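I'll show a record.
***
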Amino acid sequence: MSRKAFLILLTIILIFAFSVPASAQGVTGIIFGDGEETAATVDTVRIMIFLTILTLAPSFLILTTSFTRIIVVLSFLRNALGTQQTPPNMLLIGLALFLTLFVMQPVYTVIMDEALTPFMEEEISQEEAFEAAGDHLKEFMLRQTREKDLALFLRASGSENPQDPMDLGLTTVVPAFALSELKTAFSIGFIIFIPFLVIDMVVSSILMSMGMFMLPPVMISLPFKVLLFVLVDGWYLVVESLLESFM
């Protein structure tokens, strides 16, 4: 399923790149040569646009999926444990990536059935495929986005409030979604920090009462925090909370 999700993500970017009308990719009214030369020029411009957008693929993954919330929460967890580079960044990113694919699987399945497959079978045009894929992706983002964040970008752009949130453009929904995801991730991170902070305070108080000022409290509290995290099955609880937060 991860390969399928990657294919859908790449196809969305591909559809976006090639959904730009030919008239919008050049200056209207200018003829570069005969018909064959004009077609070759348009194809070259399309390829350049596609390669440019392809470099933004990580941004599409981060800003239009659940990846932001997951990776921020996992980073907070590692900082709360105080284990520095354990787990390593590569492991956290890999875990966040596959959790993202799991969360986004229903959305990608609908995009596959209603946008990608009909487009590949030439049942719908590129513009229709991109619109269908964008609507399903926008529907997912709007479920996780606060109205306050949407209103912020509407006011900043000087746009009027639409009757249907689905009428909003992706340029408004995507930054509002990212802002909401950061707020939610920091809220979860704060809750994660509390039990580990309590352990740090207790260990620090005990060391001070014993007059052991030269011994770093972190060195003593780290094994207890790891032990607590293992006893409560912390990884299961964190992943379960992340998955339920998207339901």
